[in-house]
Amino acid sequence: MTGAVYLVGAGAVTSVGIGLPAVMAALHAQINQFRQSARFPSVMTGQPLILARLESDDPDASDLTRLRQMALLAATECAAVIEGATPVPVFLSVPPERPGWGEAEIARLSGEILSMLPTPADVDRSRMVATGHHGGLAMMAEAAALIAQGEAQLCLVGGVESPGQPALDWLDRQGRLKGEDTPTGLVPGEGAGFVLLASEAFVAANPTLPHVVLQAAAQAEEPSPWYDGKPNTGDGLSQVLRQVLPTKDSRADVTYCDQNGETWRTEEWSTAYLRTGASHGHPLDLRHPADCWGDVGAASGPLLAAMAWSDLNDAPAEGPHSALVYCASDTNPFRSAVLLAKHGPTAKV
Fold first, then answer.
1. Do residues 132 and 332 touch, judged by C-beta distance below 8 A?
2. 3-state DSSP assignment of residue 23
3. Torsion of CA 207, 211, 215, 217, to 10 degrees
4. Spatial distance between the Cα atoms of 194 and 174, rounded to a whole number of angstroms
5. Quick check: 139 pLDDT over 80?
């Protein structure tokens, strides 16, 4: 049995706002939260790093505490439309292993989020992935399959990110952070995003909820990722775009992505776009909010999907009517994408 899958809610916390309306207002106004942070000096130059961090009443809070608090804020906003106490499967994207962040921290964060959510989690059917940028959209694909097969009415999908001092030092030593000598570097950001996926029956019972259709979702591996020293072929990203835009009638009016200023991301997108150009409505309408909220890593997919959900619901009659969302992990070879639309049948997810 298969059925349609919808996005019916979203929540967001980033450096530019708490709550999706505040975040969207900042993005549309092109407001960024890039600041030099004396708290985090460069290990290479001693100068303050440029970061996009959420202002906090407790700047000394641990990385784990910041991650948990942001996740709970975004999840609470997203889950506001859920009524009753029926446990819901939860799919989480958390930061991958890196300096200062290992298996123990990953397990602890995931467990604490599941235990403190505003709606009870169906723990047996919940999933977690720690692959970075790719994870949130990959989790959307798994949640959508559960709903399409009639095994769940609702699924909560989220991602959260906040790089601590060891991770920032590690990126700094690699020369990947934006600065005077690295204009194509990234600005580390932090945040959390959640989206609520629902069945056709749930939408029919709640017709006033704003919603969009999850038409397709896919994930793949890049055989020549940027870090292996070989020419980047863009084959992994091309594969996921072809899967979510499989026919000549498939179309993405607008694209949301995790481009962050690093050249390898631009190269991958350029190659994948050239291979699938006929399926893109507006090639220059590439929305990359990292220039406002920084690189949000494992939170990228849910935050971008929340942004697309908001924009599609607010779009005028002339469009856009569909949105491609894609992400590429930076320390793993994984790529993922989803296609959202204001109306229409779902494809296989």
1. yes
2. helix
3. -130
4. 31
5. yes
Q: Do 298 and 160 touch, CB atoms closer than 8 A?
A: yes
pLDDT at 299 over 50: yes
Q: What is the pLDDT of residues 162-210, one digit of tens each?
A: 999 999 999 999 999 998 888 999 999 999 999 999 999 999 999 999 9
Single-letter code of the amino acid located at 76: T
The angle at the Cα of 289, spanning 72 to 293, to the nearest 5 degrees, equals: 50
pLDDT of residue 281: 86
Handedness of CA 263, 302, 16, 308 (dihedral sign): positive
Instruction: Give CA separation, 223 vs 233, 235, 239, in Å.
Output: 8, 7, 11
* CA contacts within 13 A on the Cβ side of 295: 26
- Residue 346: what pLDDT? 46
Percentages helix, strand, coil for the chain (3-state, rounded to 5) are 35, 25, 35
Residue type for position 69: Q
Residue 343 has a CB neighbour count (10 Å cut-off) of 11
pLDDT digits 0-9 by tens, 312-343: 999 999 999 999 999 999 999 999 999 999 97
**Cis peptide upstream of residue 345 (ω within 30 degrees of 0):** no
Task: Give mean pLDDT, residues 272-290.
Answer: 89
Distance CA 110, CA 119 (A): 15
171 near 134, Cβ under 8 Å?
Answer: no
Q: Are 315 and 342 in contact (CB under 8 A)?
A: yes
d(CA 125, CA 148): 15
- Give the whole-angstrom CA distance, residue 157 versus residue 69: 16
Cα three-residue angle 292-295-55, rounded to 5 degrees: 65
Tokens of 297: 């890593």
The encoded tokens of residue 135 equal: 């994870």
Structure tokens at 64: 């784990």
The CA distance from 347 to 92, in Å, is 23
- Radius of gyration over every alpha carbon of the chain, rounded to an integer in angstroms: 19
Strands 154-161 and 334-341: unpaired
Q: Which amino acid is at 6?
A: Y
Question: What number of other Cβ atoms are within 10 A of residue 345's Cβ?
Answer: 8
